[in-house]
Amino acid sequence: MQKDLKPSLVFAVSIWCIALLVYVCISAVMIFRDKSDMFAAKAAEITTSLDRRIAQNFAFVKSLEVFSTISGVESMKVFGSLVQHIMDACPRIHLIHLYELPKGDGLSHAALVASFPSATDVAAIPAVLPTVINQPRGMIRGFADPRFPGRYFTTTHIENGNAHYAIIMLLDVAEMIKPILQSGAPEVEWIIGSVPAILLNDEQDSFFSPWLRLERTIVPGLHKTASEDVTNFPEGTVFRISETVDLSELFNPLGLAAYCSLSAAAVAAAYYSLHQRRLSQRLRQSEEEALGRAARLEKENRLEHAARVNAIGELAAGIIHELAQPLTSLLSQSQASLKTLEENQTHVDFLKRAMDANVRDAKRAGRILGKIRDYIVNTVAVPEITTLNSAILEIVDILNLEIKQRNVSLVLCLAEPSPVANINRIELEQVIHNLVRNSIEALGTLEQPQKRITIQTIADHTANIIQVSDNGPGLSQDTLAQLFQPFFTTKNSGMGLGLSLSQRIVQRVGGLLTASNKDGAVFTITLPKVEPVPATEPHRMVLAVDAARDRQLEHAINHFTASKRFAG
Fold first, then answer.
1. What is the pLDDT of residues 521-537, one digit of tens each?
2. Can you give the pLDDT at residue 298?
3. 438 by DSSP, 3-state: which?
4. Is 353 among the domain residues?
5. How many CA atoms lie within 13 A of 265 on its CB side?
6. Three-state SS for 134?
7. Which of 61-70, 159-168, 252-261, 320-329 has the least mean pLDDT?
8. Number of independent structural domains in the chain
9. Which of 194, 229, 250 is the last residue of a domain?
């Protein structure tokens, strides 16, 4: 929209924004400077008042030294009267204790000579007595103890004759500071010897607090009551005064409102003059967008047509892959039967078995065609309760002859009772058939004497598992990474659709098809567990094949294969 503005209007708006920013900044700086000056005066006043009270506390302790070392009842009366007068005049003083300790004795012999007020609980006060006794004689110190939060001590240690005397004055920090704070007082923090004594008017920090905070830090208590005395606080004592200026206080609402009103009127007049031009530009832009949408729609239609053509090609490839297996089996068995009849051999049992196999393969091809038809009309195969062992035995019956021709041993380890799963039986047989055929073809390229395929069913507590493994060369890492991608194959004549279709079938019922290596390739089908149903057919755990009939069938097929090679 800025491209539609005239250069004069853009320049005017820029000047208006800059002037507004300058006005706000200058106003904020001036107000902040005034706030800083007011804070400095306020901090100086608070500091002076605090130093005066600290010096007063030291003077009280210094005056008590004179009467604390004089023995006698009268001197104690004078000492008590003086203490009472001080505490009445200064509510910040919480208690005053006087201790006496004979020279050479341990702290355990320290005696409490006077306690004001008398009803004060003195159990915790002796805990600070070692600190007082160890401080240099004649020094008046102020310190804080973590065991007395919100309070601090002013103490002195004096010596007279054969005894040590310690005066301990405990002061309430809040009572000492609050009277010198006015309404709207800044934040006050007093740390005595690294021990926090008090924190008043703590303010919640905001995002702008680091830039708007006013702060002053002083070290209080450096006053001397006499030129020869040393009165101080421990190292690390600081008295910090800080105040954060509220962001809203940095602006003059009336001046800002007047400036914004006048400038907004000027901007509104400029906007009205450009309204018609903007309207025409928007109409032109809408026309261009409509033309662009029409062009995009035409491109999308072309892409959709290309996708349909690609889908038809993929479907045709799937049809060829799925029908090639039963039709090849059907053709080889029919040719073997014809060869037997041409040789005038009457193997009725062999022919019956071959015809049964033909019927079974033809039905399977029909089922595959029906499934492809369902795919075309977008019909999903209906899952059913399928017995895993019987589905495996059905595929073994179909592939038994090819397994024997390839000199491969088949090992069945089927769980008892048979696990069941909610999956379409035809689709499950298709998956098992693909996996076993892959193992047969992988072993067919090897020259090792013992070739073995193992089919195992496992009834886990959470899932039912079918494993098809072989003792072949296994799968490389590159092959494992691309194994289930459509059209990926390691065979010279393969189409690369078997495993991708198998994975899609298993995933559609909530299962998982994975591949790994363990002394060869291992394919694992994991299906969700369902409750088993009573078996309606006899259970078969071992594949039984009549030896005589197998020999007859193998002899016929081998004879047919040899004649084909001879003819070629």
1. 999 999 998 876 554 44
2. 75
3. helix
4. no
5. 5
6. helix
7. 320-329
8. 2
9. 250
| Cα distance between residue 189 and residue 201, in whole Å | 9
Band (pLDDT 50/70/90 cuts) for residue 544 is very low
Evaluate if residue 117 carries a pLDDT over 60: yes
Is 340 within a domain? no
Reported confidence tier of residue 203, pLDDT bands at 50, 70, 90: low
Say yes or no: 13 and 158 in one domain: yes
Mode of pairing for the β-strands spanning 187-192 and 238-244: antiparallel
Amino acid at position 388, single letter: L
Rounded (5°) CA angle 160-164-169:
110
Condensed to tens digits (0 to 9), the pLDDT of residues 65-114 reads: 877 766 666 777 888 888 888 888 888 898 888 888 887 766 667 788 88
Inter-CA distances, 308 with 298, 382, 390, Å = 16, 26, 39
> 44: which 2 tokens?
């100086």
Phi and psi at residue 478, to the nearest 5°: -65, -40
Please, what is the Cα angle at 286 between 281 and 287, to 5 degrees? 100
- One-letter identity of residue 110: A
Same domain, 242 and 388: no
Query: Does residue 261 form part of some domain?
Result: no
Within 13 Å and on the Cβ side, how many CA atoms surround 38?
Answer: 12
Please say which residue of 229, 250, 271 terminates a domain. 250
The DSSP code for 377 is T
CATH of the domain at 401: 3.30.565.10
- CA-wise closest residue to 517 among 463, 461, 478: 478
Query: CATH code at 85?
Result: 3.30.450.240
- Quote the tokens at residue 212: 């708007």
CA distance 523 to 434: 11
Pairing of strands 111-116, 93-102: antiparallel
Candidate ranges 231-245, 300-314, 474-488; pick with highest mean pLDDT: 474-488
User: From the CB of residue 64, how many other CB atoms can be counted at a distance below 10 Å?
Assistant: 21
Q: How many residues does the chain have?
A: 568
Are 315 and 369 a contacting pair, CB within 8 Å? Answer: no
Question: Which residues are CB-neighbours of 567 under 8 A, at least 6 positions away?
Answer: none
140-143 vs 151-160, strand pairing mode: antiparallel
Q: Alpha-carbon distance 49 to 37, whole Å?
A: 19
Written as one letter, the residue type at 66 is V
Three-state secondary structure of 170-185: EEEHHHHHHHHCCCCC
* Residue 311 lies inside a defined structural domain of this protein: no
Report the share of the chain in percent with pLDDT over 70: 70
Domain that holds residue 183: 2-250
Helix axes 388-405, 348-376, angle to 10 degrees: 120
Rounded CA gap, 40 and 179, in Å?
A: 19
Percent of the chain with pLDDT over 90: 8
Between helices 348-376 and 253-342, what is the axis angle to 10°? 160
47 and 189 within one domain: yes
